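Predict the 3D structure for this chain.
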Amino acid sequence: MPKTPDRIEHGSIPNGDTVIEENREKEKALPIVAGGRWEITECLHAKAKGELYEGRRSVPAEYNRETDPDFEVIIKTYPLDVPGKQKERLINEKDALINAGKNPWVVDVLDVVKLEDGREAIVMPKIKDLDLRFVKNRMGVERHNERFVADVAAQVCFGLASLHEQGLVHRDIKPENILVHIMSNDRTPYVMIGDLGLVGKLAESPLAKDVLFDFSAAGESVGALPYEGITPANTALGTIQYMSPEQLWAGQLSVQSDLFSLGVMMYELLVGERPLDAVVGRKNYNWDPILSDLYKKIKSPSEMLHEKETLLKKIVMQLLAVDPEDRKFVSIDGGERLDISDAMKLAAAIKYAMVKDGQASPQDYPYLHA
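Done. Predicted structure below.
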């Protein structure tokens, strides 16, 4: 029986039989990648502005699938029949994704291919069993020390900076989308941002607070929200528990939107639960307009852990401010302020915090010269 898709178009929640029948139709119509390098195996999202597929590397006949692992990938397609300006935008965004993938802290684009129907597509690795959530569970810890969190967050900043320089916003920063390799010699994490399927354009205008969608049928994750490939900035996509308030309201997204999600992830790594979990009283919750206001009621990591305040914890709380403008600076001793208004400045602030609090030395961050 075909696998029931875990992503359902907003406003249309079919019964089981409908889902199965729709999936059978998708399986019959799976496109073919020209050249034979890649094989498409399942449709994840099908929209006019682009489709997202799971796939794997095509292999010779003598390849033994029982003893050799499949190399699984995500294949994102780009449509042929779109208006001129929209087509130009999609081409620009595809090129931006490819350029961002050249950064060592962003998962790379493996290939640019054509389908037999003439559409272009990009091929990216599929995250599997190496994400931050998996590593956390494998290490058997409820929460991490500040050094580990700082190491992870600084590298995520480098990846985000690359995306932001290309005019892109990730929209789904969370532990499941961060690939991790733990260096065996000193347990230092090396990370990359993965899963670029929800990448969108950064807002070119002020926050559009009047752009609203009906989320009455929305679930707790991207699974129940509308998907449009690489979409305009005012489309609400992401995972509810990590969304910024402006993202929850389907407003225009900025650099601060991704940094807010990073703040949620840092909070979770430090405390062992996400900021809203204690406020809402459970870990799974649906979209609700009150969620953005609830961020005003969250307790700091220091309060949650009954520990002394540190500069890193102050940075995390500042990233979780409801107003994007309030996320740009954090106050430190003597009335000074640290600039955390973009990803690279945030990475530098994280380094400064760890050194100032005596938890690291400048030499511990050879990749960070700020």
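The radius of gyration is 21 Å.
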